[in-house]
From TrEMBL:
It comes from the Eukaryota. This is CRAL-TRIO domain-containing protein. Gene3D superfamilies: CRAL-TRIO lipid binding domain. CDD domains: SEC14. Residues 135-327 form the CRAL-TRIO domain.
Length: 327
């Protein structure tokens, strides 16, 4: 697949590159023998306008050439060093999966192989391929999490978590994990062409201490860093109560072990926090904050604290809005 695409692009780009070089030489020749600067300037501007898309295509072609060779290198190393790993979709010869992990590891072959190997082994041990609506039916009935039927306004599949229905003292932790992975797989299966990430919405209305589960949060960080890297494009914490703030403070150190996360806090305090909260006396009511956590792993995920009104107005249309967020 990559090879045929590469050949077609390079063939067209190579021919066009020769034409562009010829035109550029002609333009400079004109500049040498023609002293009409205005005409020369117009010619150069027009030249750039006509050929900028082809110049971009050439850059893309060379980039794909590099990717192609790196993907082949990873495939060959995996076949030689990890021949016992499965092949096929999500296997050691899955070119799309290899390329995704190369991008995640900044095209370091060794790092991509290490992380990809870990992910493939985990998929086998966890039994990801065996998960289905039937295998998670019991825990799914709780309504604690589901994949929304519609995409958001940015064409992203939406995974919704109802935090008040997560009861760690009642539900089997393994069942929670299976439901989580099944829903991530389901959301990714709904990705439209050109889209690579999903939106996560954590509905915190009614959240209490009985719903807090740091062990499960640790599992989530593992899942989204090791096994589904860069798939979670944005997370919305909706209507976070004051009791959630200590949980968030405990969560941030865990994040330092997993991700470099840009945290965009959009907090309408009269909606998010208790009116009697001591935080109201601080200089937080400007509404928008940018907190860059200095962490050693590269994963960019936007984390936004917002109201239900923000969800309605900024992420969905009237037709696609989840029922639980309607007036």
């Amino acid at each position: 697949m990559l090879e045929s695409y590469k050949g077609a692009i390079l063939g067209q780009a190579g021919a066009k590159l020769l034409f562009i070089l010829f035109e550029l030489v002609s333009a400079f020749s004109m500049r040498k023998f023609n002293h009409f600067d205005e005409f020369y300037l117009i010619s150069v501007v027009r030249f750039v306008q006509l050929n900028v898309s082809w110049l971009h295509l050439i850059v893309v072609a060379f980039k794909n050439e590099m990717w192609f060779h790196l993907v082949l290198e990873v495939k060959e190393k995996l076949e030689k060093e990890h021949y016992d790993l499965p092949v096929g979709e999500n296997g050691r010869d899955d070119e799309d999966m290899i390329l995704w992990y190369l991008k995640d590891r900044r095209f370091s072959v060794e790092e991509a192989i290490a992380k990809l190997t870990k992910a493939i082994k985990w998929r086998q041990e966890f039994g990801v391929a065996d998960l289905s609506e039937d295998t998670v039916k019991s825990i799914a009935k709780t309504g604690k999490a589901y994949v929304h039927d519609f995409l958001d306004v940015n064409d992203r599949p939406v995974l919704i978590v109802v935090a008040s229905k997560h009861l760690p003292d009642v539900h089997d932790p393994r069942d929670n994990e299976k439901l989580c992975v099944f829903l991530i797989e389901k959301a990714l299966s709904k990705l439209p062409a050109g889209q690579e990430q999903i939106l996560g919405i954590v509905d915190l209305r009614g959240f209490g201490t009985k719903n807090a589960d740091l062990s499960y949060l640790t599992f989530l960080f593992d899942v989204f860093y090791y096994y589904y890297p860069k798939r979670l494009g944005e997370v919305l914490f909706v209507e976070a109560p004051f009791v959630f703030q200590p949980i968030w403070q405990l969560t941030k150190p865990l994040l330092k072990s997993y991700a470099s996360m840009v945290c965009i806090f959009i907090m309408n305090l009269y909606r998010v926090l208790s009116p009697n909260s001591s935080l109201n006396s601080t200089n937080l009511n400007s509404g928008i904050y940018l907190c860059i956590l200095d962490m050693h792993i590269n994963l960019s995920t936007a984390v936004k604290f917002c109201s239900t009104e923000t969800v309605r107005k900024e992420y969905f249309t009237e037709e696609t809005l989840p029922i639980s967020f309607r007036d």
